[in-house]
Structures are given as C-alpha cells and as structure tokens.
Design brief:
The chain is mainly alpha-helical. 60% of the residues lie in helices and 10% in strands. The protein is built from eight helices and three strands; from the N terminus they run ααβααββαααα. It has a three-stranded antiparallel beta sheet.
Length: 175
C-alpha cells in the first residue's frame, strides 16, 4: 500500500521535509508578535500597552462588559486581566461594579476619559492596520479570516472527539 506524500504546506514537525518557514502555526505566531510589537511601540507614546489597548477596544465595542467576557474576548487569563483592570481603574479609565440582579458578576464600564484616550490611539491602530493589509486584496483578507476561524474551531474541539464518535463496534473491540 503506497503512502500518500503530504504537501510541504501540510507537513508537520515530525514529517520528512518539514520547513519551519512554511509551517502555519509558526507564521501565525510570528505575525501576531510583529503586530503586537508594532502596536506596543506606537502605544507607548500614550502611556498605554497592548493589554490596555485590547481591553479598551473590547469595551469600546461593548460597554459595559463582564470581567469574564473581557477575558474571553481579549484572550487573557483572569489574574492578568485583573491587574490590567486595577491599573485602568487607578488611572480613571474604567469603573467596575456588581451587576444588578447578580452581584457575583462584575461589570466594567469605560469612562469618558478612556473614550477620549481611545479616540486618539484608534488613529494609531488604523495606521498599523492599513500597513497590515497593504497589498492584500479583500478576497485574501476574507479567506484569511475564515481560515483563522476554522483553526480556532479545530483547536477548541476535543482532541479525543474522533475517538468519542467511533462506531459502537470499534468501541467494543477496544475494550
């Protein structure tokens, strides 16, 4: 039985002919790091960092938001987010309060001071974004977004899902 050869774009670290420069996860990480580094450099002039930027952008999109929702949408662990929220609160950028009807849920709201600061730095974000998409047409952008969503869905799925869905006769043989 002939073994089908994988394309170089589908080759993983244990495959013969593996090329790190063509490895999708490596390129995703490098791209995210380059974007974060560029944003950090630009935001520093406004005494902001990328974490504060992400939180404020998320609150700009939906304010108030629960702490859990902010953590999920900014892909931030709760202890890290708590430190960022503490700093933003000390700077007068956010207000935290218990949600009416469920005091266990803490709602975070952006202040007018944060809205003014965000308006200034959104221009920076826009300039960086325009550099990001320079030379990339809308079809490619849409495809990239679609592929990234599929990758996230793949990674969110249990690695054992296929085993869990095995036919009953295969499960019986395994026992």
């Amino acid at each position: 039985m002939a073994v089908e050869k994988k394309s170089r774009l589908r080759s993983g670290p244990s495959d013969a002919g593996f090329d790190l420069e063509e490895y999708l996860p490596y390129n995703l990480i490098r791209t995210a790091a380059a974007y974060s580094e560029e944003m950090a450099k630009e935001l520093k002039r406004f005494r902001l960092d990328t974490m504060k930027w992400r939180v404020l952008m998320q609150l700009h999109d939906k304010s108030p938001s629960s702490v859990g929702e902010i953590a999920r949408r900014t892909v931030t662990k709760l202890p890290t987010l708590t430190r960022v929220l503490n700093r933003l609160e000390q700077e007068g950028m956010i207000v935290r309060q218990a949600r009416e009807g469920d005091k266990r849920v803490i709602q975070v709201t952006m202040t007018p001071k944060a809205s003014r600061a965000l308006k200034q730095v959104q221009e920076i974000g826009q300039r960086v974004f325009e550099r990001v998409i320079e030379g990339v047409d809308e079809r490619e952008i849409a495809l990239t977004i679609s592929v990234m969503k599929q990758i996230r869905a793949n990674l969110a799925r249990s690695p054992y899902e296929e085993v869990e869905q095995a036919p009953a006769d295969m499960k019986a043989k395994a026992s």
